[in-house]
Amino acid sequence: MEHKEAKRSNDKRKINIFLIFLLCSFLAWLVSRLSETYVDRTTFDLEYINIPDSLLLGDNSLKNVDVRLRASGFQFLGYYYNGKKIEVDLSNMATNQSNFYVTQLDFRKQIESQLSGSITLLEVDRDTLFLDFYKVESKEVPISPNISLNPAQNYLVEGKLKIEPSLISISGPKKELDLINSASTSEVELNEITEDFSIVVDLVLPEELKNSELSEKKVRISGNVFRFSEKLIEIPVEVINLPEGTQIKTFPNTISVLCKARIDRLKDISPMDFKVVANFQEQRGENQNLQVSLIEKPKDVYSVQLMKNEVEFILKRQ
């Protein structure tokens, strides 16, 4: 029994040794093969640098280039897994009327300068590198906040929101700038607000403006929040444009006005700050009612609401 176990252990050891030698042989063969020089094709990604400030690179510009190289297997393997990025310097690009391009000789030299000395560039898949450029124009537009404000009960946002900056510049091709008159923010919702707020939000360009850029990426939006109260005030009704030689009596002769404002502001408001009128010339036929209008109200008041829009009347001749 012990003899069989010893034989089995010895056989297993021999198999392991054989597998180790086989693996070493394979690795030696692989290293040998990868060390050899090959001619093959690969693809380089292009990154454009030193673009003139007056031009904007369009989406149709070439993003990669196929080349034929003489290099070792290790180098080709590295390109296969990690890729290779070639910088294309556009500071000396050529132009012909409306076309911008990098000549074949210049393009080839720029690629060769970024390859290691042991790699030979044999062929580039294009004669001339043409570029898709737009002439850059700029336009100043206001900010359009996409913000939903929901104050808590008995609270209000005072006045207009403050936006910093309130104007920004958009740079891009004219055909895109003609499509936009304001820059919108990302959607924001603030609920149960009880105090002043200040938030930073992103600006969003419409999808059709693919080649345009904003001078700012974010804006700050702030607002003042106050607690309000309500007050009912009785305002005398004044009838205008009465016929000569007539008197009028309205029922009621005062109208209740619901005023919403800051608590400290309500203390200073009186009936003298309002004016409610009924225009007799607007009375029609046998109708014994007159429409009333609020034509004067105090400043710094959030809202003023007439509790009744018409009054009855009796007309007397003198």
What does this entry show, briefly?
This protein is α+β, with helices and mostly antiparallel strands and 318 residues long. It is 19% helix and 50% strand.
Secondary structure layout:
Blueprint: H1 2-35, E1 37-49, E2 55-57, E3 64-72, H2 73-82, E4 85-89, E5 94-96, E6 99-102, H3 104-113, E7 120-124, E8 129-131, E9 133-135, E10 137-144, E11 147-151, E12 155-164, E13 167-172, H4 174-177, E14 183-185, E15 188-193, E16 197-204, E17 213-214, E18 218-240, E19 246-251, E20 254-262, H5 263-266, E21 275-279, E22 289-296, E23 303-306, E24 310-317
Parallel strand pairs: 1-4, 10-14, 11-15, 18-21
Antiparallel strand pairs: 1-3, 2-9, 3-7, 5-6, 6-8, 10-13, 12-18, 13-17, 14-16, 16-18, 18-20, 19-24, 20-23, 21-22, 22-24
Could you describe the 3D structure shown?
The chain has five helices and 24 strands. Helices cover 19% and strands 50% of the residues. The N and C termini lie far apart (142 Å). The relative contact order is 0.10. By secondary structure, the protein is of the alpha+beta class. The strands form five sheets. Strands 10, 12, 13, 14, 16, 17, 18, 19, 20, 21, 22, 23 and 24 form a 13-stranded mixed β-sheet that branches. A four-stranded mixed β-sheet has the order 4-1-3-7. Strand 5 (94-96) and strand 6 form a beta hairpin.
What distance separates the N and C termini?
142 Å
Number of strands: 24
Q: What is the count of DSSP helices, taking H or I runs of 4+ residues?
A: 5
Round the mean pLDDT to the nearest integer and report it: 82
Give the SSE string. Answer: HEEEHEEEHEEEEEEEHEEEEEEEHEEEE
Bin the strand percentage: over 45%
Radius of gyration: 41 Å
Helix content: 10-25%
Protein structure class: alpha+beta
